[in-house]
Amino acid sequence: MPSHDARTIRGAAIPTAVAGVLAVAISAAVAGGKGAVGAAFATVLVMVFFASGQVALDRLTRNNPQLMMAVALLVYTTQILLVGIVLAVFKDTTLFDTKVFAFTLLGCVFIWIGMQVRTHLKTKQFYVENDQKPDEQAKPGRQP
């Protein structure tokens, strides 16, 4: 995985984990143990789905970057469908507080996406790769 992708995942995962810990603490105080379980499950779900999506996007576009937009839309659609399936499966569960789960999931998604965009905008990526070796690059006074 290129370093800028790892930086993007770290830049989104750390704030999301911090928000998740805060959500678990607040949920435990307000909704008890089931609220804490719901907040923890929502945080883990967001982090696993979005980090795996970034890894899948990197692997699928490594050799053919022209497919980036199509693959990104496919990965995002798959993530949303999987989250929808998880929501449908746990719709009537009594394992955790579903309202706490839903609000934590929504908050963590917003934080993940926002921090991913912020990290990506602050990362300086080269759009053109230089095939020359550093000692072969044009030197001052030398014409190619």
Main features:
single chain, 144 residues, mainly alpha, 74% helix, 0% strand
Describe the fold and architecture.
With 144 residues, the protein is an all-alpha fold. It has one domain (3-123). The protein has 3 helices and no strands. Helix 1 crosses helix 2 (68-89) and helix 1 packs across helix 3 (98-122). The chain is elongated. It starts with a helix and ends in a 22-residue tail after the last helix.
Mean residue pLDDT: 84
Structural class: mainly alpha
**SSE order:** HHH
How many helical elements? Answer: 3
Number of domains as seen in the coordinates: 1
Number of strands: 0
Q: Could you tell me the strand content as a percent range?
A: under 5%
Could you describe the largest sheet, including whether it forms a barrel?
none
- The best one-word shape is elongated
Which blocks of ≥5 consecutive residues have pLDDT under 50?
none
Short structural summary:
The protein has 144 residues and is mainly alpha-helical. The protein has three helices and no strands.
Topology:
Layout: H1 3-61, H2 68-89, H3 98-122
Helix pairs in contact: 1-2, 1-3
